[in-house]
Amino acid sequence: MANHNPRSAKINRSYTVEEVADLYDIHRNTVRNWLKQGLSHCGEGHPKLILGSELRRYLEERKRKNKHPCKVGQIYCMRCRKSVPPKSNEAVLHVPDTGGATLQGICPNCSCKLFRKVSMPKLADWRGELSLTNMKALERLD
Ligand SMILES: [Zn+2]
User: Fold this and answer.
1) Residue 103 domain-assigned (yes or no)
2) Going along 28-120, which residue ranges are E strands?
3) Residue 113: inside a domain
4) Quick check: 30 and 66 in contact, CB under 8 A?
5) Distance 82 CA to ligand 1 centre (A)
6) With a threshold of 0.70, does the pTM exceed it?
7) Do 79 and 57 fall into the same domain?
8) I want to staple 49 with a disulfide (CB 3.0 to 4.6 A). Which of 12, 14, 75, 140 is the partner?
9) Parent domain of 96
């Protein structure tokens, strides 16, 4: 989960969807999802305006709800509801041409597939002891 600092939002101003997207360097659709998931905006007009104070409240609440911090080298298992290092510390890296890499591993407790979206620049900090297989590199071998 990306870290959207609630304090980046200035409480005395209001933001359009585009401005929130710029503020947190996220896609506008992400902000639209937040609106569907409980972020309030003022009035019915266009563009939709979001109060900085409301944005801050929403993000702080969201942060509390999403507290399943993954430690270095761990992936969150939906079934076990906790972060675990994948089986044998092995994960497969999928990098589609469309961008946005995904790590896939196996849960050592329930054998479920684990998925984690990763940003390539942060991967080095995050992978810890994991041994990664890059699917793309493999595909080129045969
Ligand atoms: Zn599991």
Assistant:
1) yes
2) 49-51, 75-77, 82-84, 90-94, 101-106, 113-118
3) yes
4) no
5) 8
6) no
7) no
8) 14
9) 75-141
- What distance in angstroms lies between residue 62's CA and the mean position of ligand 1's atoms? 23
pLDDT tens sequence across 79-102: 998 899 999 999 999 887 777 788
pLDDT in tens, 96-114: 777 778 899 999 999 999 9
Which one is predicted more confidently, 122 or 38?
38
What's the CA-to-centroid distance between 73 and ligand 1, angstroms?
15
- 99 Cα to the center of ligand 1, angstroms: 27
Query: In angstroms, what CA-CA distances link 82 with 75, 106, 117?
Result: 8, 13, 16
d(CA 35, CA 124): 33
Separation of CA 74 and ligand 1 centre (Å): 12
Residue 100 domain flag: yes
Whole-number Å distance, alpha carbon 3 to ligand 1 midpoint, is 24
